[in-house]
Amino acid sequence: MDSIIEQLNANLKIVYRQALDADKKLDDLQQQGHGKFKALFAKDAGFDFEAKRFKPYVLDVAADVESLSNDGLDEEKLKKTVIKLQQLLQLLATFK
User: Fold this and answer.
1) What is the DSSP secondary structure assignment for residue 33, as one 8-state letter?
2) Residue numbers of the domain that contains 72
3) What is the rounded distance in angstroms from the CA atom of residue 75 to the CA atom of residue 80?
4) pTM for this one?
5) pLDDT in tens, 61-92
6) Number of structural domains, the chain?
7) Are 42 and 79 in contact (CB under 8 A)?
8) Which letter, b or e, does each residue of 66-89 get, where b requires 16 or more Cβ atoms within 10 Å of its Cβ?
C-alpha cells in the first residue's frame, strides 16, 4: 500500500507543477479576452465541483490521496482517485 501512495504522491508533484504553469497560461489567455468557459472538466468527470483552473482539481486529488493514506486503502476510492489523476494528466498534456 505504501508504494501505491508513494506513486500517487510522485504523480501529484508532477501534476501540481504542470497545473501551476497551465493556470498561468490560462490567466494570460483570459486577460487577452480568451478562455471563456465554465469549467475545465464536464460534470460527469468524477469531480464534485467546477473550476476554471487546474489547481483546485489537483488539490481535490491530493485530498483523496491523503484520505487513502490515513483511512486505509479503499479499492473503490483508489480507482476514483486514479481516474481523476489520469484525467488531469491527459488534459494537461493536451494543453501544452
Assistant:
1) T
2) 1-95
3) 9
4) 0.91
5) 999 999 999 988 889 999 999 999 999 999 99
6) 1
7) no
8) eebbeeeeeeeebeebbebbebbe
